[in-house]
Amino acid sequence: MINKSTIFFTFIFCFVCATLLSQNTRKNEANQIGWYNYFGTLKVNNKYSIHTEYQLRRTNYILDKQQGLLRVGVNYQLNPKVQFRLGYAWIETFPYGNTPLNGMGKNFTEHRIFQAVTIIDKISIIELSHRFMLEQRFIGRYSSVNLNTEDEFPMLNRIRYMFRMQLPLKGKSIVNNTPYLAIYDELFVGFGPNVNENIFDQNRIGVLLGYKINNNIRFEAGYLNQTLQLGREVNQQNIFQNNNGLIVNTILNF
Predict the structure, then answer these.
(1) 176: CATH
(2) Across the chain, what does the average pLDDT equal?
(3) Which of 23, 57, 101, 161 falls between 20 and 30 A from 9, CA-CA?
(4) Is the dihedral of CA 14, 15, 17, 18 positive or negative?
């Protein structure tokens, strides 16, 4: 007859074996990153505006290339709390770190179509926002190591959710000439054909100090953590990057 002690130690043994197995099939790497970003909004009328964005992403904080991202879109303001966005993004990714994202160690281009909705709210002095984004990603691949340009662009689907809180460090609201603190977390999940290993694609956590000069200009800077999983195995191991560093944002609204 099996007693409770046997069941308990069997459970512990299985747990330890599973933990060791997961460690053997996972490799962790780290990079120091610096992301320097511009975000701009050009208001057309009370309902529509144009979104522009460029992100210069570097490793070793600023010395080496990681990624360049250009994003443009059209915003529709349903009401003061809900905004929709439809747009296109161009991304160029370069080999970096111990294990490049591209299996051949080459840079590659991505073309992306995206749809997003942002919902804002306020509790006391804390401003809250929820952003849901759906992306159709056409990622460049090389069918041969001898090629200099990508000849394949399979489509991958990804959904993103970002939760952000910000609160003034002076007064009860973020008005002109107000410093503020912002904290956010964004989760990325791949789905559908061609996703392969990275159903969990990545997660980003940011802690920022900001300053609102006026309704047109804001600056933010702080700490960024990016946990990213490669879309393929290397030597039968899943590769995870734990990237930490600096993020600087310039936000312009006209």
Answers:
(1) 2.40.160
(2) 91
(3) 23
(4) positive
